[in-house]
Amino acid sequence: MTDDIENANEENASEDGPGEEGVTDAPESPDEPVLSDEEKGALLEGIENGELEVHSSKGPVYAEVKDFVISPRAHIVTNSLPRLDLLNGQLAIILSKTVEKLLGMKVKVQAGNIELMDFGTLVENEPKALLINRFTAEPLEGPAMICFEGGVVTQLTECFYGGKVAKATPRGNNPFTAGEKRVVNKFSDSILESIEESWAVLSPVSPKATGLFLSTDLIDGIDASTDIVSSTFHMIIDEEDWAFRVLWPESTIHPLLPALKDQKREADAAKDASWRSAISSGVTDSVIKISSQVGQTSMLLRDVAELSAGDIIDIENPRRTFIFAKDVPVLEGLFGVHNGQYAIETTRWLAPSADNQSQ
Question: Which of 94, 222, 240, 354 pairs as cysteine with 194 (C-beta 3.0–4.6 A)?
Fold first, then answer.
């Protein structure tokens, strides 16, 4: 009897189907991309042309920096380059505001460690997929680079196109799409603008992007043995930490290393003498305004108010006068006529007063 009841229940279940709610569509996979590559390209083109505006309704999001694991083969030099550490901090502040506008959400960029290593060690220790933006920074001679991990490129692109913020995970050897490269170029332009603004207090530079490369490509001016100063930056969005690096070959920033190390320049007698000669020559070749007073007198204010065209003002004979260089009296002389023109015959140099010296 029990077997008959169970069989009947099974038959009723198969006939009734899924119930009153009916069959629901399977949820989309959370890993499925928000937009296709073609849609991303069209969207980016619209933003660049000004046809589309990017808005965000998300409020501010505050996060803390996660622990950063330093490569065991990297040599930390933060304390050895205090000025660079300060410049990186200022760069991070400027870049935070720029990236917020680019992504339309709350972003905090923080300066991380400064490390000294060769380029080969960097590539060896990082994930396989690296996208590198090479740039120059005239008047510095030589290249520099901005280095992005593949996972950061993926998440930065998804975020730019309105996707959800997620953890940046290694992407393996998958090739970078045209849309990803365009987003990286936009982000790199923001970094270069921030470098130009933050470095102005040390040495004015004009950063200019020269091309995108993979870590496996041959990069002009860079090889595995090139010693580089690597500055890591952390971009904090929705508690996720996306890191990128600004790489300065030592040969490129060599003229600025004493300043970056905050070292006092050692005196060089020959160079100092050369500078003194150049400055003296420049000063003596300068053109300045020379003037003199013909004479002076005193009048009542009511007499001045009653003056009209044709009235004559009596002054003392301007026999002795002074010569002024940019309103500073420098010479005394005698007023007269020379070759049919009014002239001054100089008689003596005036000793500089305390007031004149302060000017």
Answer: 94
pLDDT for 8-35, tens place per residue? 445 554 444 444 444 444 445 555 555 6
**Count of domains observed in the chain:** 2
Assess contact for 224 and 124: CB atoms under 8 A: no
Task: Identify the CATH number of the domain in which residue 333 sits.
Answer: 2.30.330.10
Q: Which two tokens stand for residue 257?
A: 């290393």
3-state helix, strand, coil in the chain (%, to 5): 35, 25, 40
Which backbone phi and psi does 193 adopt, to 5 degrees?
-65, -40
Global pTM reads: 0.55
Regarding whether 219 and 300 lie in a shared domain, the answer is: no
pLDDT band (50, 70, 90) for residue 192: very high
Q: How far apart are the first and last CA of the chain?
A: 118
User: Tokens 């808005």 label which residue?
Assistant: 55
CATH number, domain containing residue 211: 3.40.1550.10
Q: Are residues 191 and 143 in the same domain?
A: yes
d(CA 213, CA 143): 13
Beta bridge partner(s), residue 294: none
